[in-house]
Each structure stands twice: as structure tokens, then as C-alpha cells.
Amino acid sequence: YGDFNQKIDYVFKVVLIGDSAVGKSQLLARFARNEFSLDSKATIGVEFQTKTLVIDHKTVKAQIWDTAGQERYRAVTSAYYRGAVGAMLVYDMTKRQSFDHMARWLEELRGHADKNIVIMLIGNKCDLGSLRAVPTEDAQEFAERENLCFMETSALEATNVESAFLTVLTEIYRIMS
Ligand code: GDP
Ligand code: MG
């Protein structure tokens, strides 16, 4: 209902990618609806959610796409990436493997997406600090080498979620306008 009678200046498609269970759907639920669920079912059906916000006096509609359980390598179709101007590359900071897979997700992304796409690396579940398996410096180093923005988030505690999406959307806006 928030979009009613609103003039939209820009629509930005942003895709979420990363291994299964890293928290992609909950990051989206937190950002789009300020909701979180601990027993989230595997994502079915819903392709994207939108959130309308104002950046620099312009109305920007963010259309955030969530993988519908297609997280297996190479299972995400090119339609998913088509038209994306932003990407959130998400790992679970308590699961080393999900971070080690970032390189191949990035390769997939770069193979399909526009070359000017804005990419944010996200280490999610920072509320589980005692179970940390990925040092911040490792992720920072990877992000710098690959020219990505980087943040650690918690969808559960709402830490940095808004900030991560806003950073990406503002950077996209800066490039597009
Ligand atoms: P997806 O497969 O990447 O979409 O992952 P989900 O969003 O479905 O989340 C997988 C599991 O991790 C669910 O049980 C979530 O409740 C949980 N989860 C997601 N984000 C967080 C977080 O920030 N902190 C904690 N502790 N659990 C989370
Ligand atoms: Mg999901």
C-alpha cells in the first residue's frame, strides 16, 4: 500500500546470492517488512519483494530478488541475474564453507550480470559471535581484492541490514543518475 499514487523515479533490481541457509531470505524479510523468523522454510514461490525509499529527493523502488531454493552451483538461471544493477553476496560467518564459496558465486555473477553491477559482500549472523568461523579481516581482504563493499550483518538482531541495502542502493543511484 505504501506505493499508492507515488511517482517512482527509479526501479533498481538487486539480487541475493549465496549458499543455502546463510540467511538471504531473512535479510530480505528484515529489510522489506522488518520481520524475522527462526524456522524459515526453504524459499518457495516468491520471486522478489519491493521496498520504496527516497534517495536524494528521488523515489527509488528497490526490487530485491531471492533465490527460490536454487542455491546449487549453476542452478540459478540467467533470468535471475537479468537486469540486476546490484547484488548481495551473502555468507554465514559461522560457516567457513559458505565464505569459501563466495569466489565461485562471484564468478557466476560476473559471468551473467552487467559489468557495472554494484556488489556487496555480506557476512550474516554476526549475533552468533562466539561461533565465528570467518575472521573479519579475511572477508575484508577478499572484498578489497575483488572491489566489493563489505558488511557484517544480523538479520535476527537487525544489525546493519538497512545500512547494507542502503549502501548498495545509494551507490547504484550515484552511478545511474
Ligand atoms: P537462505 O536459505 O539463505 O534464504 O536462509 P534463511 O533466510 O532461510 O535462513 C536460514 C536459517 O538461518 C533460518 O533458520 C534463519 O532463522 C537463520 N538465520 C538467518 N539469519 C540469521 C541471523 O542473522 N542470525 C541467526 N542467528 N540466524 C539467522
Ligand atoms: Mg531462502
Briefly characterize the structure:
The protein is an alpha/beta fold. Helices cover 32% and strands 24% of the residues. Bound molecules: guanosine-5'-diphosphate and magnesium ion (MG).
Descriptive account of the structure:
The structure is a single chain. With 177 residues, the protein is α/β, with parallel strands linked by helices. Helices cover 32% and strands 24% of the residues. It has helices spanning 24-33, 78-81, 96-100, 102-112, 136-146, 161-176; strands at residues 10-17, 48-55, 58-65, 86-92, 118-124, 149-152. It has a 6-stranded mixed sheet, with helices on both faces. β5 (118-124), α5 and β6 (149-152) form a beta-alpha-beta unit. It is globular. The mean pLDDT is 91. It comes from Camellia lanceoleosa. This is Ras-related protein RABA4d.
Average pLDDT taken over every residue: 91
Strand % is 15-25%
Radius of gyration of CA atoms, rounded to a whole number: 15 Å
Which ranges are low-confidence, i.e. pLDDT below 50, for 5 or more consecutive residues? none
Order of helices and strands: EHEEHEHHEHEH
Tally of contiguous helical segments: 6
Distance between the termini: 27 Å
Query: Helix share of residues?
Result: 25-40%
Principal-axis shape equals globular
Which ions and ligands are bound to the chains? guanosine-5'-diphosphate, magnesium ion
The count of DSSP E runs of length 2 or more, i.e. the number of strands, is: 6
Query: Strand order of the main beta sheet, please?
Result: 2-3-1-4-5-6
Assembly classification: single chain
Protein name: Ras-related protein RABA4d
Organism: Camellia lanceoleosa
